[in-house]
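JOB MANIFEST
job_type = single_chain_structure
chain_count = 1
residues = 157
[input]
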Amino acid sequence: MSRCRARHGLILLCLLLWVGRVGDSRGADAAAPPSDGAGTATCQGKARLRGLVFDKDGSVIDPAGAAVLDVVVDGIKKRCPTQRFVIEGHTDISGSPQHNQALSERRAEAVKSYLVAHGIAEDRLSTVGYGSSRPLTTNPSPAAQAINRRVTLVVQN
């Protein structure tokens, strides 16, 4: 089974590069893309945008995150030219539920703004924030909690 691998620690989004599926938003590698029966890859699934990380209490996209989003933009333009996407924002467990909800929404909106600024039509993108309600880890260490500060991209069918 083919696996999508990235250079320099970034996992290139199989969802968008090959238009494959990710089993869940927990960052599993994507398998070979599903086919429409004619051998053409289809655009479906969801992917955690690995390499796009946020500082604690932050929603600013840093240069490494911009590089990840550049790959996403390219993949959407080439492989998913008509699909709509939901951008899901998440936080770690620090902060109040209200604060985390607002922060997760800002993270999703920051990604949406980047995608729109780089040529993806705004009407194809929606956002949702989940606060800290969907953690990837409950380990309280700072390194582990950094994993929960993330964004997931979901293809709408």
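[summary]
The longest strand covers residues 84-89.
Confidence is low (pLDDT under 50) at residues 1-40.
exit_status = 0
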